[in-house]
Amino acid sequence: MRILVLNPNTTAAMTATIRDLAEASASPGTTIVATEPLWGPESIEGHFDGYLSAAAVLDRLTTFDEPFDALVMAGFGEPGREGAQELLDVPVLDIAESAAQMAMMLGHSYGVVTTLDRAVPQIRDRLLTAGLLGRCAGVRGTGLGVLELEADRERTVEVIVARAREVVERDGAEVICLGCGGMAGLRERVSEALGGLPVVDGVAAAVKFAEALVGLGLATSKVRAFAPPRPKTIVGWPIGEGRPSAP
User: Fold this and answer.
1) Which of 71, 93, 78, 72 is nearest to 44 (CA)?
2) pTM score above 0.85
3) 3-state SS of 55-104?
4) At 23, is the secondary structure helix, strand, or coil?
5) Measured distance CA(51)–CA(129) in Å, rounded
6) What does the pLDDT look like over 207-229, one tens digit per residue?
7) Is residue 88 within 8 Å of 156, Cβ to Cβ?
8) On the CB side of 36, how many CA atoms lie within 13 Å of its CA?
9) Helix axes 95-104, 119-129, angle to 10 degrees
């Protein structure tokens, strides 16, 4: 099976980090194809960036010409997943929902540690829409921008662990979700620093859920909410047609 993992920002180095984790999480026989939009913001830190990215992601999916059996959208809480579910016939997984769903299998309540504090309302809204907020003990920001996560991994782990302890000790979380695709690959270190507390990485969780859905022959229902888009003229679409992929 082939799983397409789509980084919603245009930073190729982050795509590579996400790809490495997805490949490490995948079962033998699963091929990971990772990419990013052909245009759009270098990082997503707010609603404006998020909606630009959603359009860029849908544009990339419209022009992507390689086959795949499932899509993993590697943005934590960003919009666009529903559009992808309409556009595609294969399962579509979002790392925020996948992380929360897996966390709820491991404890009574879970917490999310993310990047900037401004991302907290956006993530909470996403979890509310997905029906997953009820068991979320808290969402806390580290104060680190998305691109800062890879600048100094030691500092990144230190700050994530500090915020995770707050979510556990003050909010009552029993499981921690890493709330950004840029935190890929840090799960084991954060868990070890927290004394073995379960820590869920959304990229890994989404890859495993994708494998399960494909293996069971399941895909998004097209009966109502996620029926294919109605044919119509869209002026200037697709935007990225003919553009080369990022190096």
Assistant:
1) 78
2) yes
3) HHHHHHHHHCCCCCCEEEECCCCCCCHHHHHHHCCCCEEEHHHHHHHHHH
4) helix
5) 16
6) 999 999 999 999 999 999 999 99
7) no
8) 24
9) 70
